[in-house]
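Reply to dn_fold:

You asked what the input looked like. This is it:
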Amino acid sequence: MNEVLCICGNITHLATGSLDRTVNIWLLNDGKLCQTLSGHSKGVWSVKFLSTSLLISGAYDATIKIWNIHTGICIRTLLSHSGPIWSLACSNVFCLSGSQDRTARLWRLPKCELYATLTGHTSSVFGVDLNQEQNLCATASADRTVRLWSLSTTQCIKILYATTDDYIMSVSLQYGYIAYSFGVHIMIYKVNIPESRPCHVQKIMETHEHRGRIESVQLVLLSDEDTQPSLVSAGQDGLVKYWDLNHIASQHTYNTQNNEIVKINCIYVDRDHIVTVGDDCLVRVLNFAPRKYGN
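and this is what came back:
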């Protein structure tokens, strides 16, 4: 068995990408494997659902593939990057890819036409995200910077920095906030873009509770009534941590370990589940009930 590198989900399915060059599709309700997608020539480092039936994957072979998860057929391959694809993000309008070639590329849906190439990073782009409002995207790099980009102009409008010498591995840009991780640190800012004014960010907090490099951070809105997202993080210490943004200390820690530390490579979070994948080849589905931790 090979290490599982990435995961994504929707209301019915999970998808995992692995070092063995395949993507597996699982039923969320019972964990049954229902499809294996084969076609990449190297390990699959990022997967995202485009719809209930379409999935996009990015791999070390520098290709991006779009799949019908029900038939298992690859319906399109995107060739533009010159290095491994480390990260993907999708909205209703765009797909965003980050690569070893130091660029991020915007693809316009549904035809997946190349819309823009975002240049400026001086090292690999490990993390990308598109915000809910579909006016901003974020790229996180081994050059220790996060760049915020306007989707209307495709220009960089803000640069944020790591406060240590660690690579920035993951970024989440959602609900008016941005969170990014480097080493054992997480930085969280509120993002505001007034009309006809430069982008303004306000630092909310910096945390460093993890004991190993953080591989994945995700901002999630836990109910329709919430006006502020919560944060979930995971990494090489095998721990999953949950924060609300009003407290610098985490509200709860999930321990996925037994006797040995299992490094977590990626997480998928919705209002009911946290799903982790790591170097033990397992997909772990945790019951996510954060309300009781905040009381």
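The chain has a mean pLDDT of 93.
Hope that clears it up.
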